[in-house]
Design goal:
The complex is a heterotetramer, with 2 copies of chain A and 2 copies of chain B. Chain A is an alpha/beta fold. In chain A, 38% of the residues lie in helices and 21% in strands. Chain B has 12 helices and 7 strands. Classes of the chains: A alpha/beta, B alpha/beta. Bound molecules: thiamine diphosphate (TPP) (2 copies) and magnesium ion (2 copies). The site of one magnesium ion has 6 residues of chain C, from strand 4.
Chain lengths: 340, 326, 326, 340
């Protein structure tokens, strides 16, 4: 498959282009889901009268009422578990855990119930549940509010992990996730909500199986997802100036990984850099490096490079936070290092 | 509505004989992993489950054979599961701690203490949102009540007036830890009441008393009054699990409780009022033992899941993600 | 012992002026991240902290400027922290949500709701095991009380009779969620009492009432009676954070509570009994404003931590693991 | 450093050899710690009157009393947090979380307090805490009781992760962990408690900085830790018969990783297999592969192989569980694959 065909696979909309934001695209997806299926409801802290912690669900309470846009107390384990049970009982819950930081409080329910029930029950209990949460750093929120733990979740069999990095995916991933028979965790990066752009008016469901080549290139493959995609694309532009043509792969789905697209690109470019906002050791980037060397070892002209967050609880001070996070310059430098 | 005492007796005997056999099979190595017996607590499962309809759901713990049997899960499929056979109720993937039966709305077996509570809350929520009159019964122990999940779940159930029947099996111990070392205030029903739930303690060794309490509780819950919390005061006659040398309980204490064996208690009462003869009891017992024996034979003869099927059910067969684990 | 009302007034004014300035600085971009203001709730921090000795410990939340100031953490080091300077109380690593001062036993600033409770339990345990008469005061909100951590911690504190003062700041909202949507039973002190703790509600807008309640509570706790739970009924005059458009509260409700501004309330009382003149108040205010202004200037002039120091304090300098992050 | 010098670095005991077990070695370490330092106490579910879930703490209650061998209710988050607070207040708590499966309930306290407090407070609050727990599968305990999540913890800066695989380490790691100024998580593999062997009578503290070469070899490096070490050594023996000389590295400390020992061995052998009981995707094995290819890319004669658990919630049935776990045969096969 060519790069073009691969990225096309994520979209089929043909309507006129309209201006929108990542936040509005997410909201439209929620609205559509609530409208089209009575079994769908949204539940979480402050999704209702507050309008959503990041204003994603603003107005939905008024439109759909408090049963279907359901505010919860601060009880992450209980309301995530409630989503699992309601899914089993025939509903299609969308549970919002405000941010990934608080999802640790619901981890047992996610790992030991949502992800395990189908298998543990010998196939009797699928859990058609969607869990949304915000992830990432970059807004000086310090150690407890800046985690990027989606890589942890991508370790767990039984769940699917997706991370929209574009408006199209923000608009389209929810519908596909809701039609999935199994639990899907959807990670929205906190720095993307205000991202502006255009989207087809009839944009809708996108596939969740394929990574997308967001920019074709021949000399190096840059692999990123979610909040890191934009700066990776920027780095690719900067590399052009250095005479290095970078292909950019957006993972989109973190579990299961689309090895074919990742490895296919590296087979062409012979060099790769993985960009991951997680702490370097044990981040998802390691898994990608491992797979590339397993599947394309003899195609590699240089070790795969990683650009990750420094291994430090995220500091508040702006200069420290900036130094801790992957930046355009560090991505460019890593790409250049692969040239030797 | 309440159940016929004789039916309660039959259920309790079935549980007792089933588990006695499990203990033997564990020693023989046919059953493995962890095995937690319910011996002594049978009145609770029998009394509560008799009040549930087929639309109601049940969530249990790792000490779950009694709940599963009282719920009507076929003992053949339960025993086969203990053997790890594909004929088991969870296709051999669950074992003793993860019995499931969708057709009886028996939603497991949860081996994380307190882990079933949020799930049960959600089942109740799902029922309520779909306007069915179903009730979810969730069993858990005195130890589980110390977990944060209990607090979150009871609060939410009251807040949303969900049809949840919380059955706290207070057997005075969480593994080796006595209730006095688990809870600052050991009047569990009183504490549950402080959340705004109806709550009361029940003699959990008396199957008829449990059944009457359950009847009233299910009625309230089904009527839309919100959750009810029953503190079922009971005792396990055997150790926590097959690994437990039971060092922490006084012999006298165990003996005192054994004097109130729920099966003997009910049998004695039925004998006293003339509704049960020794011959009747022997007949029921023989019938139960025969069923257990047949189940063991069937389980032993059952097939094993081929290892090629290992990763099946990680994702649904219809999911494209299923390909990733093949 | 109780505090001088005039001292309470001074503390409250300091908090108020400090935070008003923080709000301005946030708009100007000198302070960033999340900023949660305590305006309206000052009586709680002032009244409680006045009863603590220097050996006592304090654990707070992300809405913590008031607690830190009332505890005596120097406002210069607090303001510098808000600016992210190395001169800040957490060397710029914590920001508004993570203020720490070991010399005042101010153990933070916790931005995970309920996350400070287990930590506070441990501080109390550590004190108790070492035989010191110290008390740990832990502040948290009405929203936090719904978290499982609250339940686990209160139960353990009662069980082990730990010297823990639980200060629940009931400001009627958890972000945009009103207390009626958070708790099935909104009588928070009654619920805490069901765990076996002494608990009572206090008018949290009246600094003198808070202080008297705290005096009695600290006495009990220090005396070894186990934990005390105070429900401090208060209100935040401003939005949850600087991001919050405050859509969920009625204007009237806010206005009614503003009529009970804790600073004006106490000032009026002192004026009425002749212990405070308008000139006195103006003088105190001027002094406080001058201190805040000086702190802002010092903060602005402070150095930034060099980025070379980014990974310092991930591990202790003396640990061999520190080498791994260099 | 030679392989011999490296493995010597973990021990200096010279006393007579005595028979013992992994369980008894752990208990001796606890007893010594409680005896030698008044600030030390052991806290967790059933550590006291029950004698410890796996009988590790049997008899310690009688010896040290209920204040220092402290039974807790089922409240993982609260009592782990209590350990953090008590450590800050001057004690040296050893918190036992019965098994890693339940540690998810305490994860927020571990990640957001234990690991973060020192940095977040600008150096003011070190947390000298030891958390012990059992990990691993292999005893037919099924999905919720068979996790191997130590790889997750190894992702978190601010904590040290250790996994004793030998009697010597079972005896010696606790003392070193207690002398560490920062939090240490100690993972005991459930299948090792009954392991028998001999130990020096005066065995004591061991270093926690170095991996150990448990068996020298020249053709391939097998990397393992904890519960996987024994079968990896077995595989090495089997490989001898195939004419392949395998060096076996025991990681011992999972964070920070001892790159020098790992990479040093691979530089000599040019081939490597990582054995990890965690689910393959996103396991610690991926990090090790990534580091090897980053640091020894040009020394590698073949892609680094991984032998991990199948990506499935652990099934109960014996044949399924065995098929899900790394086995001697799969390790041998992976090593042979590196020969091409
Ligand atoms: C979260 C969690 N912590 C610890 C355990 C280990 N464990 C299994 S059963 C048990 C005691 C539970 O006591 P209780 O809730 O009273 O139920 P009982 O066994 O008495 O029926 C413990 C500590 C567990 N399974 N889950
Ligand atoms: C575990 C967790 N869940 C959610 C949040 C987001 N959040 C921050 S403050 C808050 C409301 C807390 O309310 P309350 O405890 O009453 O304190 P208040 O802000 O009113 O002082 C929420 C939901 C969080 N920080 N931590
Ligand atoms: Mg119990
Ligand atoms: Mg509040």
């Amino acid at each position: 498959m060519t790069a073009k065909a691969r990225s096309k696979a994520t979209s089929s909309a043909k309507g006129p282009l309209v201006e929108t934001t990542y936040r509005d695209a997410l909201r439209e997806a929620l609205r559509e889901a609530l409208r089209e299926d009575d079994r769908v409801f949204l539940m979480g802290e402050d999704v209702g009268s507050y309008g959503g912690c990041f204003a994603v669900s603003l107005g939905l309470l008024e439109e759909f009422g408090p049963e279907r846009v359901r505010d919860t107390p601060l009880s992450e384990s209980a309301f995530v578990g409630a989503g699992i049970g309601a899914a089993i009982q025939g509903m299609r819950p969308i549970v919002e855990v405000m941010t990934v930081n608080f999802s640790m409080l619901a981890l047992d329910q996610i790992v030991n119930n949502a992800a395990a029930l189908l298998h543990m029950s010998g196939g009797q209990y699928p859990v058609p549940l969607v869990i949304r949460m915000t992830t990432g750093a970059g807004r000086q929120l310090a150690a407890q509010h800046s985690h990027s733990l989606e890589g942890w979740y991508a370790h767990v069999p039984g769940i699917r992990i997706v991370a929209p990095a574009t408006l199209e995916d923000a608009r389209g991933m929810l519908a596909t996730a809701l039609s999935d028979p199994d639990p899907v965790l959807l990670f929205e990066h906190g720095s993307l909500y205000t991202m502006k752009g255009t989207l087809r008016a009839d944009a809708g469901a996108v596939d969740l199986d394929r990574a997308a080549v967001r920019r074709p290139g021949t000399d190096v493959t840059l692999i990123a997802y979610g909040g890191m995609l934009a700066r990776t694309l920027e780095a690719a532009e900067a590399l052009d100036a250095e005479g290095m043509s970078a292909e950019v792969v957006d993972l989109r789905t973190l579990r299961p990984l689309d090895d074919a697209t990742i490895v296919g690109s590296v087979r062409n470019t012979h060099r790769a850099v993985v960009v991951d906002e997680g702490w370097r050791s044990g981040s998802l980037s390691a898994e990608i490096v491992a797979r590339i060397q397993e599947q394309a070892f003899y195609d590699l002209d240089a070790p795969v490079e990683r650009v990750c967050s420094a291994e430090v609880p995220m500091p508040y001070a702006h200069q420290l936070e900036a130094a801790a996070l992957p930046q355009v310059a560090s991505i460019v430098a890593a790409a250049l290092r692969t040239k030797g | 509505m309440t159940a016929e005492p004789l039916d309660l007796l039959r259920t309790m005997l079935l549980i007792r004989r089933f588990e006695e056999r499990c203990a033997e099979l564990y020693s023989g190595g046919q059953i493995r992993g962890f095995l937690h017996l319910y011996v002594g607590e049978e009145a609770v499962a029998a009394g509560v489950c008799a009040e549930l309809t087929e639309d109601d759901s049940v969530v249990s713990t790792y000490r779950e054979h009694g709940h599963a049997l009282a719920r009507g899960v076929p003992l053949e499929s339960l025993m086969a599961e203990m053997f790890g056979k594909v004929t088991g109720c969870s296709r051999g993937r669950g074992g003793s701690m993860h019995l499931f039966d969708r057709s009886r709305r028996f939603v497991g077996g949860n081996a994380v203490v307190g882990g079933g509570l949020p799930l049960a809350l959600g089942l109740a929520l799902g029922d309520r949102m779909q306007g069915t009159p179903a009730v979810t019964a969730c069993f858990f122990g005195d130890g589980a009540m110390a977990e944060g999940e209990f607090h979150e779940v009871l609060n939410l159930a009251v807040l949303w007036r969900l049809p949840l029947l919380l059955c706290c099996e207070n057997n005075l111990y969480a593994m080796g830890t006595s209730i006095a070392k688990e809870h600052g205030s050991t009047e569990l029903a009183l504490r549950a009441a402080s959340y705004g739930a109806t709550a009361w303690p029940v003699d959990g060794m008396d199957a008829v008393a449990v059944n009457r309490a359950a009847a009233r509780a299910v009625d309230e819950v089904r009527g839309g009054a919100g959750p009810v919390f029953l503190e079922l005061r009971t005792y396990r006659f055997r150790a926590h699990s097959m690994y437990d040398p039971d060092r922490y309980r006084a012999k006298d204490e165990i003996a005192d409780w054994r004097d109130r064996d729920p099966i003997e208690l009910l049998a004695a009462r039925l004998r006293a009022d003339g509704s049960l003869t020794d011959a009747d009891l022997a007949e029921i017992d023989a019938e139960v033992v025969a069923r257990v024996t047949a189940a063991v034979e069937a389980a032993a003869a059952g097939e094993e899941e081929p290892v090629e099927e290992l990763t099946r059910f990680v994702y649904s067969d219809t999911s494209t993600a299923a390909r990733s684990v093949r």
